Amino acid sequence: MVTFWPDTNSAVYTAATLLYPHALATSVTLPMEILQAASQMASVRARSGPQVQMLLAAPQNQPITLSSGLTLVPDTSYEALPALDLLLLPAIWRNPLPTIRSMEGWLDTLRRLAAAGTRICSVGTGSCLLAEAGLLTGQPATTHWNYFEQFARRYPAVQLKTRHLITQSGNIYCVGSVNSIADLMVHITEEWFGSRIARAVENQFSPEIRRSFRAAAYQGEADSSHHDETVVEAQQWLQERLGGTVAMGELAAYLDLTPRTLNRRFRRATGMSPRAYLQGQRINHARELLKHSNLSIAEIAWQLGLQDASYFSQLFRQHCGMSPLNYRSAVRGKLFDPARP
Fold first, then answer.
1. Residue 13 and residue 15: Cα distance in Å, rounded?
2. Fewer CB in a 10 Å sphere around the end CB: N or C, the chain?
């Protein structure tokens, strides 16, 4: 459910986390903290109130004491949850079966939320709840590595992806670990608030270990954000030309479209212009080069088809909230170097 603050055009998103006794606390708090940081940054930009409403839900709205001994006080009950943009199912500590059995009565509600289009994200063995509800039948999924065999035996109709830490099938996401939920939250932040806020949040939460959602995820479709095959072809054409001079008129001619039609269809499918998409892809490639190579800023700019290093630095700052050199320093600052004293 996307709502709006009075007298503003600022979208407000509603996210909820289910609480159950064996939930892993970090899989509750980490995504909430990332979304809270994004909400604060977006509210400053929009000059309005919080942009994400975050709720904790528990049976009968009663406090839940987790296996760790931490007691969490919910905001609402399972039954009183409002319409949601995002529902989080935390990881289950150790054997998930007791939690699965205790949640049987709520699986119908989980199915209804999924059918309504709510984005549902499970962490670790939280994916067992999705499988029990039948939401993963015939779909890709992942879970905590220690439960791969148990999961495969109990849910043989699920396409278990043991080599992926994130899977997506429509509005259903599974992540295999607490670290990976951070990657997914950064991805959702970018969809909700744009790349600049996403990069700022990412840099705040240990950028040296982050991987992009698209690099980490197994997706049921090549690009599940839209179904326009012509735009997919345009995206592939642009990705193949990151390091060259790109004329949008040439792309339009290649697709047998007018430039105006290309721009309209691309925006409708992706929410951005072809040129903005190209810039985003170039910045993503630049981030990888800054992390993993010793190329100079000018050399990286040249590899991206940009002859002006200062323009590249300006573009990078617009997308990532810091200069290329500062970004390189941030992502390498905590890398372990055994040669150091």
1. 7
2. C
Strand segments, DSSP code E, in the chain are: 2-4, 11-18, 52-58, 64-65, 71-72, 76-77, 86-89, 119-123, 140-141, 159-160, 166-169, 172-175, 217-219
Check if the beta carbon of residue 161 is closer than 8 Å to that of residue 141. yes
Q: What are phi and psi of 95, to 5 degrees?
A: -60, 120
Give the 3-state secondary structure of residue 227. coil
Cβ 238 vs Cβ 246: under 8 Å: yes
Half-sphere exposure of 222 (CA within 13 A, CB side): 8
> Which CATH number applies to 2-219?
3.40.50.880
pLDDT digits 0-9 by tens, 159-194: 999 888 899 999 999 999 888 899 899 999 989 998
Q: Are 197 and 41 in contact (CB under 8 A)?
A: yes
Domains 2-219 and 229-332 share a fold: no
CATH class belonging to 229-332: mainly alpha
Break the chain into its structural domains and give their ranges. 2-219, 229-332
244-270 residue pLDDT tens: 888 999 999 999 999 999 999 998 888
